[in-house]
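Hi support team,

I submitted a single chain yesterday and got back a structure, but I'm not sure I'm reading the C-alpha cell output correctly. Could someone confirm the output below corresponds to the sequence I sent? I've pasted both exactly as they appear in my results page.

Thanks,
R.
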Amino acid sequence: MNLAGRDFLKLLDYSKEEILYLIELSNIFKQKKKNGEPHNYLRGKNVALLFEKDSTRTRCAFEVAAYDLGMHVTYLGPTGSQMGKKESIADTARVLARMYDGIEYRGFSQDIVEDLGKYADVPVWNGLTNEFHPTQMLADMLTVKENFGTLKNLNLVFMGDARNNVGNSLMVVCSKLGVNFTCCAPKELFPNNELVEQCKVFANENGSTITLTENVEEGVKGAHVIYTDVWVSMGEDSSIWEQRINQLKPYQVNKHAMELADPKAIFLHCLPSFHDTNTKIGKEIQEQFGLEEMEVTNEVFESNQSKVFDQAENRLHTIKAVMYATLKK
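Hi R., thanks for writing in. Yes, this is the structure output for that exact sequence:
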C-alpha cells in the first residue's frame, strides 16, 4: 500500500484498509525493535516537531521513532517558533517544507494542522489537536488487537467527556474498523451530532454500531475495552474542574464498572492519568474537593486488566509506521 507523500491529519481521511495497514506495519516495527534489528530506512531525512502543547509520550515517541529510522529531529516548543505570532501558518509551512522532509504539529485547533498540510508540500502529521488525536488511535487499536487477536465485533466503551479529541477519534476509528463504540457520558458531553451521524454511516458499512448512553451499567455491560481520559483537557480553564467533577464522578472507571464488563476486558487510558494524588494537580483537587481518584481508581489503574503502559509504548511503534509509510519512496 502506497501512502508516500500523504498527510496524517485525521482518520476520517483514511480508509479501513489504510488504517489496518498502518497497524500491521506498526507491529512489524515493534518486532524489529524488540529483536534489535536495525531499521534506519530513512537515513538523511529531517523532520520538524512543532509543539504548542507540551507532551511526554507524543514528543518522545516522535523523537525516538525518527532516530530509529535514521532521521534527524528539530523540536520547536511553545516558544520555539514565530508561527501564529509574527508569521502566518501558511508562511511557516512553506518555510519548514523547504528545510524538512516532514512536519509534526501538536497544538490547538484542527484548522492549524489542516493549514500546515495545505501549504507544506511535505507530509504533515497530527500529534494532537483539540478535535482529533489520530496517532493515539493507532496505538490504541494495536493494543486492543494484541490482547484479543482481532478488532472485529469487539465492544469499546469510552467513559468521560466524549466531546474531546480522544472521544471523537475513538468513535471514528471504531466505526472504520468494525468495533462497536459506546459513548457513556452525561448527554451534555456527548460528541458533536454531525460527527456521530458521519460515524454511523461508517459503522453501518463495517458491521458495527455507535451507541450513546447516560447509563453506566448499560454502557459497560459486556465491554471488551473500557477507555477513559482526564476530565479536564489541556487548554481548558481550571475553573471548570468543579463542574466537570460533578458531571463525571458517576462515570469514574472503578472495580464495579470493570466487573460489569466482559471477564477478559482491558482498561485503556491515553495518559496522563489522575488515579492518585502523586501529581501537582491531583494534590490540588484533593485539597479543594476531597477527591483522591478522578477518572479511574488506582485499583483499576494498577490492575492486571490495565494495559496503559503497553498502550503508551505502542505510541512509538505506530508513529514510526506513520512516518515511514508517508516518507518512503
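A quick pointer for reading it: The longest strand covers residues 46-51. Let us know if anything else looks off.

Best,
Support desk
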